[in-house]
Design a protein that fits this description.
This protein is an alpha/beta fold and 419 residues long. Helix content is 44%, strand content 18%. It folds into two domains: 282 residues, TIM Barrel (Alpha-Beta Barrel), CATH 3.20.20.20; 110 residues, Sulfite Reductase Hemoprotein, domain 1. Pfam families: GcpE, GcpE_C.
Length: 419
């Protein structure tokens, strides 16, 4: 029996306060009605100012709107102004986030040029000090943020959770007639650490709107539980990320599974995909994965989407696979140029199909598409533009000819009318 009351899924994003992270004239808003932002982090030794600046540039060029760098030693803190200087010379205005642990209070005090060159501070309340020193050292970091007018992220991590707070909650739970599961206590400890630290920062004088929160864990279901509850209990912008997600497909799948659920529920204002890079792999893969999560969910558009046939027994030739790969690389490489001159091009869809079964139909639904011949089919490739067959390509240069067609289509459709 069919259900005549079928409801399509609606996406409603939670409205949070809006934080502002900037460098020069590059203003990146977070939360409120701002787009969900993509963030990444370098894995260079920050002391290597040139190497770090180069990697930041690569991440920014890939689409990272904020880049976090490790600031863990006096030498690293001293290098930060030079990293910023190198980026400015290359006209890379991406805001830098300083990742502080243990000695952040000292580094921000002893290296004021570092404090000024950073656009945001990440503070882990589990690593700011122990005992009586915790409140003092936390206050010193907040005071630095206030002095230099920098937003902060209070980033709680289950691997470095405040053990005193966790012990208090565990003891209180043990005294209950019906104790809760230890997993529930861990989730509560993460949330309380973030919210209590936020309250302390506000009491010191930090504007509430300039505090971003995160509570990261490495298990998918735990991350979903933490952020659902955190979102219910605050209006701060939230940074999402599955910490220690892993390497290769495992890290990509786990991050996608966790973040997609939360994003669909309207939770999250910035995201980072914490992938362990495979040997020789580019660091910017985590940026591409973050963008693709947002784009496939239709939450943002970064580069034209390629719809490609997976292949089957009707497509024993791998030619369409090569074409799909070439087109995907071509589109991504062109975007830094296209986005300046052709606004809206990032929402374009391109279909690369492998045989007559679904090829023409999928190609008609895309803005521009090509249907390649399957096994035994006539060696020709019809091209469809805006749903209509435009021409048929043959010969040994189909890739080059199709790329030229895409370029001409972009110029004709997306050139601003006032140019």
């Amino acid at each position: 029996m069919s259900d005549s009351s079928l409801q399509l899924t609606n996406y409603i994003r939670k409205k949070t306060q809006q934080a502002v992270v900037s460098w020069g004239d590059n203003i990146v808003t977070i939360g409120g009605d701002a787009p969900i932002r993509v963030q990444s982090m370098t894995n260079t030794d920050t002391v290597d100012a040139v190497g770090t600046a180069i990697q930041v540039k690569e991440l920014a060029r890939a689409g990272s709107e904020l880049v976090r760098i490790t600031v863990n030693t006096p030498e690293a803190a001293a290098a930060v102004p030079y990293i910023r200087e190198q980026l400015d010379k290359m006209d890379v205005k991406v805001p830098l986030i300083g990742d502080f642990h243990y000695n952040g209070h000292t580094l921000l005090k002893d290296y004021p040029d570092c404090a000024k060159a950073l656009s945001k501070y990440r503070i882990n309340p589990g690593n700011v000090g122990k005992g009586a020193k915790r409140d003092i050292q936390f206050s010193q970091m907040i005071e630095a943020a206030i002095r230099y007018e920098k937003p902060i992220r209070i980033g709680v991590n289950w691997g470095s959770l405040d053990q005193d707070l966790l012990a208090q909650l565990m003891d209180a739970n043990a005294a209950l007639a019906t104790p809760k599961d230890s997993r529930e206590i861990m989730v509560e400890a993460l949330i309380q650490s973030a919210l209590q630290s936020t309250q302390k920062a506000v009491e010191i004088g930090m504007p509430l709107s300039q505090i971003i929160l995160s509570c990261k864990v490495s298990a998918v279901q735990d991350l979903i539980s933490v952020y659902r509850e955190l979102s219910n209990r605050c209006d701060n912008p939230l940074h999402l990320g599955l910490t220690e997600a892993g390497i290769g497909s495992k890290g990509i799948v786990a991050s996608t599974a966790a973040l997609s659920v939360l994003l669909q529920e309207g939770i999250g204002d910035t995201i980072r995909i914490s992938l362990t890079p495979e040997p020789g792999a580019s660091r910017d893969n985590e940026v591409i994965v973050a963008q693709e999560i947002l784009q496939t969910m239709n939450l943002r558009h970064f580069t034209p989407m390629v719809i490609a046939c997976p292949g089957c027994g009707r497509t024993t030739s791998t030619y369409f696979q090569h074409l799909a790969s070439e087109i995907q690389s071509y589109l991504r490489n062109q975007m830094p140029l296209w986005k300046k001159d052709f606004p809206g091009v990032e929402s374009m869809s391109v279909a690369v199909m492998g045989c007559i079964v679904n090829g023409p139909g999928e190609s008609k639904h895309a803005d521009i598409g090509i249907s390649l011949p399957g096994t035994g089919e006539t060696p020709s490739a019809p091209v469809f533009i805006d749903g209509q067959k435009a021409k048929t390509l043959r010969g040994d240069n189909i890739i080059g000819e199709f790329q030229q067609i895409v370029q001409e289509y972009v110029q004709q459709r997306y050139t601003p009318k006032n140019i």
